[in-house]
Amino acid sequence: MAKPYEVVVDASQFNMENDIRNQWASQFLHLMPFDASENLQAVYIYNCNSDFRKYLKKISSMITTRAHKKLFFLSTIAEFSEYIPQTELQLPRSTMSLDSDIAAKGAIFTPVLKLSHYYQHIPVIFKVGGETIHVATAKKQEVLGSIMAIVTDVYLVSGIEEVITTKEEEFTLKFDRGLSSVTFSSSKAQDIVRTIKTAKARFQLSKPTSDVSLRVVRPNDVPGTLLNMALLNMGSDDPHLRLAAYNLLYSLVITFNFDAGNQLLEAKGLCIPANNTSFVIAISNKLAATEPHLSLEFVAEVLVGFKKSNMELKHLALEYMAPWISNLRLFSIPSGAEGAKEKRQKTEEIMKQLMEVTVEESEMYPSLQSKVWYAIGVVEELVDMALETLIQYAIQNQLGSRGAEVAADTAVTLASANVELVAGKIVSRLRRALNKTSENPVPSIHQHPAWPEIAVLLRFALLLSFNDRLHVQQFLPELLYVVTMVISSGSMLIRSSVHGLVVNLVQSLCTSVTLPEGNMKTLSLLLSDLSEPKFRVLFGISRTALNAFSLGSESGEHSEKMSLSSLETIVGSLLQILDCGAVNPDLARSWSRRWTSLIANKALSPNPALQPRAFVTLGCLLKHDDTYDDMLLFQALLNMVDILQNHNLEKDFDLAVSIVIYLTQIVPIIPNESKLLKPMFWVAMSLIQIASVELFPSSLVLLETVLRTVFFIIFLSLFLFQTFFVLFC
To answer: How far is 663 from 683, CA to CA, in rounded Å?
Structure first.
């Protein structure tokens, strides 16, 4: 301390757990030698964050004004070059990589406001890297007395517990095991949230999953580990290794009292041929049936060694692992038994590893589908867990990625073994995901946090829809309901997928049951019309050459919003599909009632993204079925009154137009004796007099429909009266 020196303080990861007590800080400064204090030339504080700023204010009384002149606050590594040569800068490697993380994989967002508990809005620059998130104030902030500095909070992507969209333009980061949170506001909130989730998913995928060096082998794992070792090495090219593996297998059976029948006998000079696959499979089949408790450890061990084996051994491993797959159902059912929760979690982990292997091992893809996933699909108890694994894997890998497409393709394999169960779960999951959009509703459905799940499920539905893997005769009303709610939404990939789903539904209806000849002709004509450019435009598909499997730049493109009049046209075609796809009129009426029930529920639920679509579709359905309900009409009028009274016409324009279209559809089916028929004339006149350019065309059509209906009733009454007079007077 006898020579001049400088101190560098790295505050990048400072938090209140690193807080030094005032008593200790005071004692340190008091005991600091005079020479050490005098020779201190400068203190460089790098990445001053919010917690360090609070700490400085806490100890500000201990820092003299003279010491203030020695403090330098730096926010980038480049700024050090003015004071310290790069060769002498000895910051931790993790700190040095902060700037490069943003430079290499970063996305920078502005304008963003950080919302504090005191309703202060602080402009910040929001940077998302591969492993870190940087939130730096746009302007220098007061940190100590008159000293101003940029305040930069660095969050590790691995430490982000959850990203929640609280409002349309607000989102909250939860970290520190969910105990801490910070809220931001930005017009780019949805893009920021999507980028963070992508970074988190990429980080999760980058973590080693089956690294042998990190595995902890427990006593319970030993039999399964040794059993896999023995069976795998039975396929070795080395005859001595094959004999050693055989003797190990025999020792296992004797030591652990496994029931392998009488197929094993220890012999030193035994000659085992290289082609002993049938023997290995037979032993594995026997042990899988008699020792099912080994299944978890055994399958997990097979997957550990799978990636490191050559192609021949991989095929052998799949063959002898297949009999054990069905045993996983024993550990998948939730129960209160001791250790049941841990076993279920391990089964879920095995499912994830199977999915990773399926994606990575492209050469083994057909074998994995037939030997593993088909076997899982046969076991009803495993289907739910398997589907959940596939869906979550696809969401994490993002729509359009190879991982997401392989997951959807694997769902088809599950459905091949259990059509009704898989189709029912996918359709049910789609309905639940759509219902989530009513929570924290947004103007467009593709902006909602639930959209990635909906988009992935739509891709699953598309692949399943071919050759009736969606069990169309059972779930057609629910599928048509989903189509009307998402049609012409999201990226071009999803728009094409929804169009492809409708085409495949028609194909499945034509091939799954025997329909009347007239119905078949109508469906064939519809199938032809659906492929026409003018019909594809209604689905929001701008390019005729684009189809549901054209991945590329188009997959991320968002087209303009669909008009409600286009939805009317599409619903009319869907109703034709419903009528002609039923084997008899009673089934068609049953389908229509189920569709109407789903749509009516959505029409009466406030949701700017879906409610307008629901009202248009509901009007078409009620007119088609000639079904009138006073209560539904009353609720629609109440919604319109609410829009007009609150002066929300500009904001709720789509909803207002959809209600007018709904009224236009149901006016012709209002009973003559209804008290609401004639007042509809004044409703139409009032809407016209609002002088809204956007609302005027639909209101004029409503007025025309009301006049036609009322005058037809008057004319019919006069005609009947004259007929009665001529006959009886």
So the answer is: 10
Q: Which residues pair with 142 in a beta bridge?
A: 148
Convert the pLDDT of each residue in 552-583 to its tens digit.
Answer: 434 555 555 788 888 999 999 999 999 999 99
Smallest CA-to-CA distance from 44 within 89, 106, 97 is with 89
Please name the residues in contact with 708: beta carbons below 8 A apart, sequence gap of 6 or more.
668
Q: Concatenate the DSSP letters of all residues of 251-308 into one string.
A: HHHHHTT---TT-----TT----S--HHHHHHHHHHHHHH-GGGHHHHHHHHHHHHTT
CB 574 within 8 A of CB 480: yes
Helix (H, G, I), strand (E, B) or coil at 238: coil
Of 314, 319, 323, nearest in space to 287 by CA:
323
d(CA 27, CA 61): 14
Q: Kindly report whether the global pTM for this prediction surpasses the value 0.70.
A: no
Rounded distance between C-alpha atoms, residue 591 and residue 614, angstroms: 17
Closest CA to 280 of 326, 313, 239: 313
**Whole-number Å distance between alpha carbons of 49 and 95:** 14
Say which DSSP state 78 is in.
Answer: G
Amino acid found at 222:
V
Neighbour tally for 612: CB within 10 Å: 23
Neighbouring C-beta atoms of residue 68, cutoff 10 Å = 13
Question: What does the block give as tokens for 728?
Answer: 């009886």
- Measured in residues, the chain has a length of 729
The Cα–Cα gap between 80 and 627 comes to: 76
Query: Using CA atoms, how far apart are residues 63 and 45, in angstroms rounded to an integer?
Result: 15
What per-residue confidence (pLDDT) applies to 521? 93
52/15 Cα distance (integer angstroms): 7
DSSP class of residue 370? Answer: I
Residue 310 token pair: 């050559």
> Region 693-722: what's the mean pLDDT?
72
Q: Is 702 exposed, middle or buried (0-12, 13-18, 19+ CB in 10 A)?
A: buried
3-state helix, strand, coil in the chain (%, to 5): 65, 10, 25
CA distances to 466, 480, 534, 695 from 541, rounded to whole Å, are 20, 19, 10, 26
- Interval 218-257: pLDDT, tens: 556 678 888 888 888 888 888 888 888 888 888 888 888 8
Q: Which residue has the tokens 């929760």?
A: 341
Spatial separation of the C-alpha atoms in residues 447 and 210, rounded to whole Å = 36
Chain mean position to CA 349? 19
Amino acid at 553: S
Q: How far is CA 331 from CA 16, 162, 297, 590, 611, in A?
A: 43, 29, 12, 40, 43
Specify the DSSP element, H or E, that contains 351. helix 340-360
Strand pairing of 40-46 and 132-137? unpaired
Q: State which amino acid sits at residue 330.
A: L
Bridge partners (DSSP) listed for residue 135: 126, 153
